[in-house]
Specification:
Number of domains: 4
Number of strands: 11
CATH class of the largest domain: Mainly Alpha
CATH superfamily of the largest domain: Multidrug efflux transporter AcrB transmembrane domain
Domain SSD: 183-332
Strand content: 5-15%
Transmembrane segments: 183-202, 209-230, 236-257, 281-304, 310-333, 369-387, 524-545, 552-573, 585-604, 625-650, 662-681
Pfam families: MMPL (PF03176)
Subcellular location: Cell membrane
Number of helices: 23
Shape: elongated
Low-confidence stretches: 1-8, 712-727
Helix content: 55-70%
Distance between the termini: 17 Å
Membrane topology: Multi-pass membrane protein
Length: 727
């Protein structure tokens, strides 16, 4: 095993020396990749469109059946909602004129259902009416220009006393405002790096590397979008992750390079040290993040899998940048890395017993129990709101009150009841005759929780029918979920005696199926990601205790993030400050956040513990190793976390609710992880555990490869009093 570790180190050393000696070639190669990728993305790139499918679910089977036999009922639709306080009947000519213009001027319209031709499309008080515009495409594939044209026509038609609002999924998908949140995160990162390094040149290297990585990653994703259905907010999501990890990974390498330069080492040796220590930590941390992202494939949701792929791509590109472009830039600048110093802000790296971080670590180690209990208790308190977490899919009712889709949603709820915004479609496969259709309608109308049921609409061949069921409760209510399950397992099964087969679908039913699928598969994700991370950390640090402690602390950080998300987005604490109302937590958010945060938390864990392990191998004194390791890494971890937090919070300023949820959750977890966990819990628990920190069973030590993330394994003479085998 030791020989294998030595060969690994040799590979890293050789790579570092190659990058140093061929620095201009490396820089030219990355420039060519960026330019070629950008050109290919513009010429061959696809579009980001949210395509929601759920293979194997009942709702998906029904949707597929409609597309095959009844395409007129399978396309996307938009609501056109009219409100006339003096009465809809008196405004019939104006309403018909609006619908005629839509039919004539808006492309891709398959049919329009007029309120004067369909029963139940005019409210009981006669002041609100809805028309349904059906498109030839699915809602997520209707061209943006088509939706914009529809919105423009309704805005032109509205006037005092005659309200016209477009709504429905087509409008909601295409009403996303563009917002360059990432620029605010970058500006904040510049100031944080100036404070951390005190040098414009040292600040510019991580920023430049991150921009190179983000540009390359987005180009790759855009090209892949030609064949893969990435969600509409994939670019925002990728930018949020890519900027954060891109700056952080390069920041760690730059920090170690400057430490070596300040210690008097030659530029080439400094590059080698940075790559074989911090570079190795970045490589393994990035692998953990990628594993966490790819673990999302077990959920079985293509929508989630493609979003995870986008995240994994930008993370892996950031790792490649940190191991090649960043050291090449450092090789070019060499000892000039500290040029253009900012007065009063110049900082040094390395272990300094006079540092406040060293004194803080020693203070915590002097009283480990109080610090461990206070820090742990605070994390538990922050996590308590999880007990009230309600998962679901947010809809137009959770959007900004100024948006068209929200106004249409509110008018429909006002005129027709809350369930009208989440109709259920019962699709009947009537190839054996349709004798059960009328029985199904009667059973549905007699079901508690059902407000109304339409008569069956048959396709031209008469072998497929659609029945629309309006619940009494809004789409996000638990009662609606129970109704869908009851219809599937009881009510409609009784109507199948005549040979018909009934499926429940529609947006609401599809979201319920997705929620059920996620709940079933989430334990596999948790076990897989935690298990693989545990094995990697054990192999890296030759300690079962360190790996187990890291997993527990990461879970505590994630729990605190979940709690804050519930408090803000579900309970509404401070929601008005960021422009969101109360609603459920997006059903896929906890799963996505777990994958992202478990990986990102490992960045700081690997960086801190690898330095502690390095110091321990030199001294054999765990307490001193913790103090030295914290001193050498605390400032850079704090700077890296501050950058990550500001980048994530910048995206809270955007219009997309789900991105706001990601921003708040990720920022909270990173802040907690870099302060409460790394600064307080790690030194206190390591002091309490003492030599047990490095416990490793002999059989497991022989079984696992020795990855030596802290760099080349020291000789026996270099380990001053370390226990044999690192135990």
């Amino acid at each position: 095993m030791a020989e294998q570790g030595a060969r690994d180190v040799t590979v890293m050393e050789r790579w570092a020396r190659f990058v140093h000696r061929r620095k201009l070639l490396v820089l030219a190669a990355w420039l060519a990749i960026l330019v070629a990728g950008g050109a290919a993305a513009r010429s061959f790139g696809g579009e980001f469109q949210t395509e929601f499918t759920l293979p194997g679910s009942e709702s998906q089977r029904a949707t597929d059946l409609l597309k095959e036999r009844f395409p007129a009922q399978a396309g996307g639709e938009a609501d056109i909602v009219f409100e006339v306080p003096t009465g809809i009947d008196g405004a019939r000519p104006q309403i018909e004129e609006v619908l005629a213009r839509i039919q004539a001027e808006v492309p891709d319209v398959a049919a329009i259902e007029s309120p004067f031709e369909r029963p139940g499309y005019i409210s009981p008080d006669g002041t609100i009416a809805r028309a349904v515009v059906r498109f030839t495409f699915d809602a997520d594939k209707v061209p943006h220009e088509t939706a914009v044209q529809l919105i423009r026509l309704t805005e032109e038609a509205a006037r005092p006393g005659f309200t016209v609002e477009p709504g429905g999924r087509v409008i909601q998908f295409n009403e996303q405002a563009e917002f360059g949140s990432e620029i605010y995160g970058l500006i904040a990162a510049v100031f944080i790096l100036l404070i951390a390094f005190g040098s414009v040149v040292a600040m510019g290297v991580p920023i430049g590397a991150a921009l190179f990585g983000l540009g390359t990653g987005l180009a790759l994703i855009t090209i892949a979008a030609r064949w893969v259905g990435f969600p509409s907010f994939s670019s925002q999501f990728a930018a949020m992750i890519g900027i954060g990890v891109g700056i952080d990974y390069s920041l760690l390498v730059v920090t170690r390079f400057r430490e070596a330069i300040h210690a008097g080492k030659r530029v080439e040796e400094a590059v080698v040290e940075a790559v074989t220590t911090s570079g190795r930590a970045v490589m393994f941390a990035g692998i953990v993040v990628a594993i966490a992202f790819f673990g999302l494939f077990v959920v079985g949701l293509p929508f989630v899998a493609t979003l995870a792929t986008a995240g994994a791509v930008v993370v892996l590109v950031a790792v490649a940048i940190a191991l090649s472009l960043t050291p090449a830039l450092l090789a070019v600048f060499g000892t000039r890395v500290d040029r253009l110093r900012v007065p009063f802000l110049h900082q040094s790296e390395g272990v300094d017993p006079r540092s406040p971080w060293y004194r803080l670590s020693r203070s915590i180690q002097a009283r480990p129990w109080p610090f461990a209990l206070i820090a742990g208790g605070l994390l538990v308190v922050l996590s308590l709101p999880i007990l009230d977490m309600q998962l679901g899919f947010t809809d137009a009712g959770n959007r900004s009150p100024s948006s068209h889709s929200r106004k249409a949603y509110d008018l429909i709820a006002k005129g027709f009841g809350p369930g009208t915004n989440g109709p259920l479609l019962v699709v009947a496969d009537a190839r054996n005759g349709n004798g059960g259709l009328q029985q199904a309608v009667e059973l549905l109308r007699a079901t508690p929780g059902v407000a109304s049921v339409t008569e069956p609409v048959l396709n031209p061949e008469g072998d497929t029918a659609v029945i629309t069921v309006i619940p009494t409760t809004k789409p996000q209510d638990h009662a609606t979920t129970e109704l869908v399950h009851r219809l599937r397992t009881d009510v409609l099964r009784r109507a199948e005696a005549n040979g018909d087969r009934f499926y429940v679908t529609g947006v609401t039913a599809g979201q319920i199926d997705a929620s059920d699928r996620i709940s079933q598969r989430m334990p596999y994700l948790f076990i897989g990601v935690i298990g693989l991370s545990f094995i990697l950390l054990t192999a890296m640090f030759r300690s079962v205790v360190v790996a187990l402690k890291a997993a527990i602390m990461n879970l505590l950080s994630i729990g605190a993030a979940y709690g804050v998300v519930v408090a803000v987005f579900q309970w509404g604490w401070g929601g008005e400050l960021i422009g969101v109302g109360t609603g459920p937590v997006e059903v896929f958010l906890p799963m996505m956040m777990f994958a992202i945060l478990f990986g990102l938390s490992m960045d700081y864990e690997v960086f801190l513990i690898s330095r502690i392990r390095e110091e321990y191998l030199k001294t054999g004194d765990t307490g001193l190793a913790v103090a030295n390791g914290l001193t050498a890494t605390a400032r850079v971890i704090t700077a890296a976390a501050a950058i990550m937090v500001t980048v994530f919070l910048a995206f809270v300023l955007g219009p997309e609710r789900v991105i706001k949820e990601f921003g708040i959750g990720l920022a909270t977890a990173i802040f907690v992880d870099a302060t409460i966990v790394r600064i307080l819990l790690v030194p206190s628990t390591m002091e309490l555990l003492g030599r047990w920190n490095w416990w490793m069973p002999q059989w497991l030590d022989r079984l696992l490869p020795n990855l030596h993330v802290e760099g080349p394994p020291p000789s026996e003479g270099e380990i001053a009093g370390a226990p044999a085998g690192g135990r």
